[in-house]
Amino acid sequence: MGIIFDEKEKVFTLHTVNTTYQMKVDPYGFLLHLYYGRRTEGCMDYLFHYADRGFSGNPYEAGADRTYSMDVLPQELPSNGTGDYRSPAVIVENTDGSYGCAFRYRGYRILDGKYGLPGLPAVYAGGEEAQTLEIDLEDPVTGVAVTLLYGVLPEFDIITRSLGLKNGGKGRIYLKKLQSACLDWVGGEFDVISFYGRHAMERNLQRLPVGHGAQVITSRRGASSHQYNPLLILAERTATEDAGSCYAMSFVYSGCFKGEVEMDQFNQTRALLGLSDEQFSYPVEAGGEFYAPEVVLSYSRKGLSSLSQNLHRCFRTHLCRGKYRDVRRPVLLNSWEASYLDFDGESIYQLGIRAAELGIEMLVLDDGWFGKRDNDNSGLGDWYANEEKLGEPLEHLARRINDLGLKFGIWFEPEAVNEDSDLYREHPDWVLTIPGRKPIRAREQLVLDFSRAEVVDHIYDQMCKILDAGNIEYVKWDMNRSLSDCFSRTTQDQGRVLHDYVLGLYSLLERLIARYPDILFEGCSGGGGRFDAGMLYYTPQIWCSDNSDAIDRVRIQYGTSFGYPVSAVGSHVSAVPNHQNGRVTPFETRGITAMAGTFGYELDPKKLSAEEKEAIREQIGDYKRYADLIQNGLYFRLTDPFRQEVGAWEFLSGDGSEILVNAVMLAVHGNMTVNYLRFKGLPGGCMYQEQKTGKIYASDALMETGLPLPVEMGEYRAYQMHFIKIHSSIEIE
Ligand code: GLA
User: Fold this and answer.
1) Of 201, 333, 366, which is best to mutate to test ligand 1, by the most ligand atoms within 8 angstroms of its C-beta?
2) Which position among 33, 97, 255, 560 has the lowest Cβ density within 10 Å, counted as fewest Cβ atoms?
3) Which CATH number fits domain 646-732: 2.40.50.140, 2.60.40.1180, 3.90.226.10, 1.10.3720.10?
4) Which residues line ligand 1 (CB under 6 A)?
């Protein structure tokens, strides 16, 4: 059983196979955090230390006991108004204008299966796989009540945390801050690992020691953003890929967020993750409820690879949904870098012919097929086919592509609108703008007010007309700017708009995936500007970056792999010189890099040599052969491509019978030193045969000294090696 309540000690213990999480109701009804880490038995309340601490106040009930202070004790849901001066998870503005709120324990329920959240993405699991713990807390003065939600997935070493807040008082309150998860450690020295970036260079890794003074990652852009990913990893200072304690906190949400990590005056660390509190002031009427989006927690004492693998497995199988969750995604050719906005139906059809000849399985018509969209300053919002440009109805083009034996997919940017569009001319008040102010333009587009149901409904109707008319089997869902001017014309409470926008986005996605269960949806936001666990609930894959250069991609995909499975990473082979940075890399290198994701092409085969076309055929064959291993195998980072001259990663099948190792040379130099790739996670005492060379290697030696990479002339070479286990065990002398 994953969840235990000790009635006498009032201690809740959550067990997964390798981890334990514990909390305790104290004599005054506060819910204190006791422990999160490696699996253990017993009660850890001996960890608390009580002392009279100057300037750390005491709750009134503690009477003359000056040693009891919420400013010192670790908590499950720290709020303002309890005497805790560290950063709180909750700030409520009460009906009377006061800010105090102090939650006390009221009761609990243990339920089979994993809870869901209304209108929000969440990990899902049935009664066999998961349990839910609901803990009721209440502020006795205002009647504001919180139900803390814990989902425990023992086999996955995953614990999720969310909460529902109910206003049990008599008037409206405002949520000024509401974060979903809080980890309070009484000791330890941690590094915080986070992922920063920019458009076309997302998810660079930063590892810094946690110290005094908060480290904050945040998005105030309306989307989770290129700039910071909503993922925090707290690792022991000495933790590496292969050893040491580390914790992950991943926010299942696609809008503004805030993650905070800080060491307090007594060297205790607190990490918080949840909604951003900037421009956030969410009204909850008497009797009303608010659900905080979920945070997925995981712990491993076996280092960062194992921590990532926990997230990969959970997200791939218990967050992603739909027909394409478990199956190999079609190898696609996307028209964007082949022809940008300059095409007609016939040129797309010709692209289809060339794609089909090479064994590609789906043609995606990217931006430009709708409205008046000959350049990127018009047409967004008008989701009807531009038949004049195409020279034929879209469904006709879809049929012609299907007749080539290809699936057909299209691009949408449902949340955006150009001022030069019929939609904007008809409904200028449907965009996020502040009356009396000129809006911020980005890519000459504005953002529709998705907090309003009628706006979302209109886009839904337009999209359905297109998706009903033709055989469209894939949709790329883009969003090419950050939100600004977040003012909605239909509410007095502008502090709710940023969150309601995300709820509107989720509602549209939910309706569409329910109505079109066979369509493969791919998320995108100028590449990887909304690459988060929230979107994965609706779109099982996300275009990882607008940067398709293989060398930059090795680094971008490395950073992405800390939190997200390879099955979610949209990755394509594109032309050289690369359109984002002008770099020339070998075709093989581009193929191997793109195979660390949902594989495809983003180029015009017409411009390729016969040799390159042959390489495409071979790459597709390889990809199909390895797809199961790539999508479902254990993923190991073998090197750090930010610090080493080779980027390398490994896929290992669950039963250890197959290995696919990939390496990309990021630098060459004279009189080259040899790079040895040390494999990871292999069963000991086994022999593996590399399939191209026929050479046989011992698993222990592959993990100990590794395999020397060839020393060859030329920049950016790449190697892909496939090994099959040939003996289950050998005698080691
Ligand atoms: C974004 C996407 C690209 C492409 C363009 C089209 O930048 O990330 O892949 O779809 O929009 O405008």
Assistant:
1) 366
2) 97
3) 2.60.40.1180
4) 336, 366-367, 411, 478, 480, 524, 526-527, 543, 546
Whole-number Å distance, alpha carbon 596 to ligand 1 midpoint, is 20
Which pLDDT score is estimated for 733?
Answer: 41
- Which residue type is seen at 153? L
Task: Supply the mean pLDDT for the chain.
Answer: 97
Which pLDDT band, with edges at 50, 70 and 90, does 1 fall under? low
Q: How far apart are CA 270 and CA 262, in angstroms?
A: 6
Atom 4, ligand 1: which residue's CA is nearest? 336
Q: Is 164 helix (H, G, I), strand (E, B) or coil?
A: strand
pLDDT tens across 159-201, in order? 999 999 999 999 999 999 999 999 999 999 999 999 999 999 9
pLDDT tens per residue across span 620-662: 999 999 999 999 999 999 999 999 999 999 999 999 999 999 9
Say which CATH superfamily domain 3-318 falls into: alpha-galactosidase from lactobacil brevis (2.70.98.60)
Strands (E) located in 307-429: 332-334, 362-365, 407-412, 416-417
Domain spans, the chain: 3-318, 332-543, 646-732
Write down the pLDDT at residue 523.
98
Beta pairing partners, 271: 183, 261
CA 236 to CA 234: how far, in whole Å? 7
pLDDT for 727 equals: 72
Q: Which atom of ligand 1 is nearest to the CA of 376?
A: 12
Active site residues: 532, 612
Best of 374, 474, 480 for a ligand 1 pocket test (most atoms within 8 Å of beta carbon): 480
CATH 3.20.20.70 fits 332-543, yes or no: yes
- 3's tokens: 């969840």
Distance of CA 365 to the CA centre of its chain: 25
Strands 541-543 and 520-523: parallel
Question: Average pLDDT for residues 717-731, to the nearest whole number?
Answer: 84
Which of 342, 410, 524 most suits a substitution to test ligand 1, by most atoms within 8 Å of the C-beta? 524
pTM of the model: 0.98
